Amino acid sequence: MRAEVVHELREILGRAGLISEPGRLLTYECDGLALLHERPELVLLPRTTDECARALRVLHREKIAVVGRGAGTGLSGGATPVKGGVVLGTARMRDVLEINAVDRYARVQAGLVNVDLTLAVEELGLFYAPDPSSQHACTLGGNAAENSGGPHCFKHGSTTRHVLGLVIVRDDGSVLDLSRPAVDPVGYDLVGLFVGSEGMFGIATEITVKLTPTPAVTETLLAIFTDLDAACDSVSDAIAARLEPSALEILDKLTIEAVEASVFAAGYPKQAEAVLLIEVEGAEAEVEMTLAELSRIVKQRGAIDVRRARSAAERKKLWAGRKGAFGAMGRIAPDLYVADVVVPRTKLRELVAATTRIAREKRLKLANVFHAGDGNLHPNISYDRRDADEVARVLRAGEEIMRVVVAAGGSLSGEHGIGIEKQAAMSLVFGDDDLRAMCRVRDAWDPEHRMNPGKLIPVHVCREMRNAERPR
Amino acid sequence: MSTYDSLSARLERLAGEVRPLRPRHDVEPVPSVAPRDVEQTRELLRFAARERLRVIPCGLGSKLSWCGIPGHVDFMLSTRRLTRVVSHVPDDGTLTIEAGATMADLKERCRAGGHFLTPDVARAATKTIGGVVAAGESGLDQLRFGPVRHHVLGLAVVLSDGSLARTGGRLVKNVTGFDLQRLYCGSHGTLCTIVEVSLRLFPEPEHELWLSTGVATLQDALGLAAATLNSPARVVSLSIAEMVPPKQGQAWAVFARLFGRRAAVDAEHALLARSWPVHASCEGARAREAAEQMSDALTFSSSPHPTLHVSCRPSRAMGVTELVRGALERLGIERRLALQPGLAELDVELRGPLEPQALAGLVRELRVALREQAAQLALRNAPRAALLDIDPFGERGPGLELMRALQRQLDAAGVYSTGRFHGGL
Q1: Domain ranges in chain B?
Q2: Would you state the CATH architecture of domain B307-387?
Q3: Contact check, Cβ <8 Å, A242/B164
Q4: Cβ atoms of A391 and A382 closer than 8 Å
Q5: d(CA B157, CA B413)
Q6: Do A441 and B136 touch (CB under 8 A)?
Q7: Is B173 in the A-facing interface, judged by CB distances under 8 Å?
Q8: Are A307 and A220 a contacting pair, CB within 8 Å?
Q9: What is the interface size between A and B, counted as CB pairs within 8 Å?
Q10: Is B10 in CB contact (< 8 Å) with chain A?
Q11: Confidence at A238, pLDDT banded by 50, 70, 90
Q12: Which pTM does this prediction carry?
């Protein structure tokens, strides 16, 4: 990149807002999908919407590609840099701008860490519902870009149901202020359209989100199984019985062993083949009835024990184990491939079994920990990236899992997005006409395809390859 | 042969059934064609693009007068004959249906499968699921379940070049691809014709309860609403209606709907009884009937009279309602007024007397005053003379240029671009 451009950007962002030293750029070479990496030319860290807009105007003039980044916890390569492009991170935009407890919303900068919002409002009897496992690190801007989920999205819905407004800086540096909360949008729902667009429509710098009242009663159950199939069938039965807990999470034996050997040890029984973590919230009578029915279902399906958390501390510990599961798997192997597919909830058992079979055939270690209530599977494959043959087998297994799931009526991603990882697989789910409609919408937001180019849409459909190369 | 007859004949050859339909209640009828299947729908759109015709897609046409005055319209394309059930998996809580199925039929189907269909819209027999999604119409149950756009899992739409484009899917959680269903939902047929809808379903309640009471002032009504909303009871809907004239000193009626498991509903009722000291209630099938009747009575969306639809923040509901009432009192306008305090939505049916110019003046005046309250006002079912310089959907805000770019991209042939939506889209 020309020195004058770097100088101009440094003038806008200050010394703390621009990283150009090769050693420091290493951190930004990849997101949570470590298999794919590319060193960016620069990393820009604006402090305000105005700084972000001015920087994007320069990049627009220079036709430089831009990849947005929150905390880099994404798992599909959505924040992987593109060759010759810059990374624009929101790490220095962490202010809570407004909390309105009466109207139950908060306006924050996009770099605010997810859990910090709940911490900021819990004294008001409110919380922010979407809770990705990485919520202690991931940002609300990243959550909006990926339409992130989390265990409690089973009841409360993914990020898109909680975003009320946005301030977006577009490809040309213009600022689109859609921050006024409204019950229904006037005109097209640009906010809803932007959420989940994986950084390809612009950079969100401010987000207005819905705050949810803390439930009167929350209870947590741990059902212990000697058989993973039985745990899956319990979940299918609970859905078929029209029950509405707030979370239904399954952890298999390998995951339990990893968690219990880690700092996240939650007291999951090591002899179990699977545990089902259940949470129910609401008014007391409703919670008690739902718990009773769920207990009956899991016992009918062969649960050998059903434990009820006796205190808030115990509940917190059970959840810390679940949310720390991905981190705990570092004990099994140096690297982890976290797959993310969704299946019809009537087919949980057969598709979990299929992922296990695929891993076994490829001589890979697979651990399952997933949002069973939503049918959102996370087959996690432990591997060592230094072993090229193992890496190839991991990638083949990931592709095969997607094919099997799609053939059974499932889809490619429940919460991690498509990014680069699943870009080619989009054609398994969508036809060319479907993908062309997505291209047209993208063209309206970013005609030059400079925002996160080369992601999500398969190359053949929109000539993404050519457009990804053009801005360099 | 007139142009109308000649076009009707050509449409009839393509799709069989053609009848006259007004694009709005006060616009001359044009041919309305109802294709038998998705393939015919595509053929009709290809024909329109080839012949450079302008088309308004619709279901049964119940919300056409929410929109502004269209420019030239050649024909209406009704999806009312597309009623096939594509997939209903009760044990997964999902339903995929063609767009012409009526909301009443869908409610029955869902109930038989042990599910409750949201949105629970008023006058369900007069609306199709495609029309409801295209207009982004939610029911009073939005308080509990959220707006309709939250429950659309996927859509199949026909674009103006005749291509069939799918978005989303049939799964309760899915982030595969851009969320185009959020774009199409509420776009009033200005981007595409919705031909298939996938929905998430909710458990059919075991028990239902309907509460009603009367209070003297709006402040009393909002106080009762606040107590209800801040209690652990999860009400399905909560409405306040103005009683004109007041009955026995009570000028405001408050209604709440509870449903779920019997013991939970009874416990919630006991909780609410503390803040609802005097109230009438009914339960079971009678409660459901009462909820349906009140939904029909308090939702003015298909009224023959002009209606105001105002939304604001809950904390501003009192000020906004008083502001609107004050303006109507000054002008001596007979009205019906209903407020959803949990959603902070106010609906007013203007029963007159009100000349179109006076209506336009009222809307302009209210919009200026409502700016201070961060509220927005939509004007529905207004006569065309009132809409000459009024955008019925609200004041133009940021994003209109982007909306136009989206329309140009998705409707390059301009088939759906009849200028009747927000900002002339």
Answers
A1: 3-79+411-424, 85-203, 207-298, 307-387
A2: 2-Layer Sandwich (3.30)
A3: no
A4: no
A5: 16
A6: no
A7: yes
A8: no
A9: 237
A10: no
A11: very high
A12: 0.96
